């Protein structure tokens, strides 16, 4: 059974930083791409960043480029999202995601709130 558990969210002032973590279990983590998504109140879930199995191929949403960095540690079954220069519009629940054998798995999410 695949499980994804996020942590590291919280309340931060604009301009501050947070580092989110997602620990995966129930899959051969090093074989799979991972992604971060977010969902703000009243809005649809949106893509934030993704990283392929070995960390060579990385993508970011335009809204976070230059501020957020995705990384992974396959030895720890973990993917991270370093978020710098946070803005109030970054406020959302952040989810990690992976796809395995044609099925999509989501974590439970971690709340990030950025105050102005």
Structure notes:
By secondary structure, the protein is an all-beta fold. Helices cover 0% and strands 54% of the residues. The chain has no helices and 11 strands. The protein has strands spanning 3-7, 10-13, 18-25, 34-39, 46-51, 58-60, 68-73, 78-83, 92-100, 103-106, 110-115. The strands form 2 sheets. Strands 2, 4, 5, 6, 9, 10 and 11 form a 7-stranded mixed sheet that branches. A 4-stranded antiparallel sheet has the order 1-3-8-7, with no helix packed on it. The protein starts with a strand and ends with a strand.
Mean pLDDT across all amino acids: 97
Q: Helices and strands, in N-to-C order?
A: EEEEEEEEEEE
Strand content: over 45%
> Could you tell me how far the N terminus lies from the C terminus, measured between alpha carbons in angstroms?
40 Å
- What is the rounded Rg? 13 Å
Count of discrete alpha- or pi-helical segments spanning 4 or more residues: 0
Helix % is under 10%
Largest β sheet strand count, sense and barrel closure: 7 strands, mixed
Annotation, overall tally of beta strands: 11
Which stretches are low in confidence, meaning pLDDT under 50 for 5 or more residues running? none
Q: What structural category do the secondary elements indicate?
A: mainly beta
Which outline best applies?
globular
